[in-house]
Amino acid sequence: MLGGDRMWIAPERGLFFKGDSAAEGQVIQNGIDPGNWVVAKLTERSIKLVNEFSADFFYHGGAKVRGIVERSIRRIASPFYHTPRLLPALQRVQFAGYEIASRFELLQSPADEQYFGMWFLIQFPMMDSGYFYAPTAGKTVVTDYYEPTGSDYLRVAENHVRFKLDAKNRHKIGIRKAEALGRMGYLSDGVGGESTLVVRNFLNNPSGHYADIPFQTPRGEAGPQDSIQSYNHNTAQAGFGEMEFHAPGINRAMPEPVVTDVNQVWAFTGMRADLVKLAVKLLNLPEETFGP
User: What's the pTM value of the predicted model, to 2 decimals?
Assistant: First the structure.
């Protein structure tokens, strides 16, 4: 399936990658995706889903990871619902939004000290390229997960990171919890005069331990502690780009190995010039950020 909002389990190394490099093999385990989701509750505006999963952890031969994940998804109002006259552009755009409340309980782990966490991914088909934006508390240090990312794809400024999504070259970047501010967005370049703006609002916890680590981090080390990631997949118009974040990880050494998360997604369509006005407000970045 291409597109949509997924929830995987981190770390990618060990659950998806079988070794310490991509060349050693990669797999998407059925217990994680598509999973075995059961509808626990259904209303006109919401749905609750539960998945009890089991997956191999390749770093420990024959070891299993087991857990229970719950996701409650409901429609929500626009972030401008109570201020409809704040911006003239609001009268000319279309909106859809939802909230996801999730709970992850770790039932079995190959090692008590090994962290696992919820990993949220929105996947954009690349019929229309654009840019990922993340406001930051000062200039951050960006992690490269694959090939080095040059200035033609990446801009790291004093107050934000901009990353190009076009499915023409493979790059994946990460932003540390120390500078992440709990919002990120994707703004497409526009086809036929219409563009898309998708903003995610989430909890970034600088005190948490984030489970995902790049290949260059030795096993057993905490890594850069990235809470935000973005991925550009290199398959042209058949490809995709991703806007990702992680909830803090948990391990079996904790008294209660449970983590919860609530996040919101706000999606708008309309003329790009109008969507820039919304992006300025929602991402707290100056208008020139969204220029060339």
Answer: 0.96
Q: What is the pLDDT of residue 159?
A: 98
Instruction: Give Dmax (Cα) for the chain.
Output: 59
What percent of the chain has pLDDT above 70?
98
Q: What's residue 1's pLDDT?
A: 36
Total domain count for the chain? 1
Say which range, 58-62, 194-198, 268-272, has the weakest mean pLDDT.
58-62
What is the domain extent for residue 244? Answer: 4-290
Task: Give 154's contacts (C-beta < 8 A, 6+ positions apart).
Answer: 142, 161, 162, 163, 164, 171, 173
* Mean pLDDT on 226-244: 90
Strand order in the sheet with 46-56: 38-42, 46-56, 64-75, 94-108, 258-271, 194-201, 183-188, 130-135, 160-165, 154-156
Q: Is 18 left (phi over 0), alpha (psi -120 to 50) or beta?
A: alpha
Residue entry with tokens 């220029």: 291
Q: Where are the alpha helices (DSSP H) in the chain?
A: 12-15, 272-283
The span from the CA of 113 to the CA of 110, in Å, is 9
- CATH code of 132's domain: 2.70.98
How many other C-beta atoms can be found within 10 angstroms of the C-beta atom of residue 191? 11
Q: List, edge to edge, every strand of the sheet that includes 142-144.
A: 4-10, 117-125, 240-246, 226-232, 171-176, 142-144
In sequence order, which residues have a C-beta less than 8 Å from that of residue 8 and are 6 or more positions away? 15, 16, 32, 33, 118, 119, 121
For position 236, what pLDDT does the model report?
63
Q: How many residues does the chain have?
A: 292
Lowest mean pLDDT among 31-35, 77-81, 231-235: 231-235
Q: With CA atoms as reference, report the closest residue to 187 among 119, 121, 262, 282.
A: 282
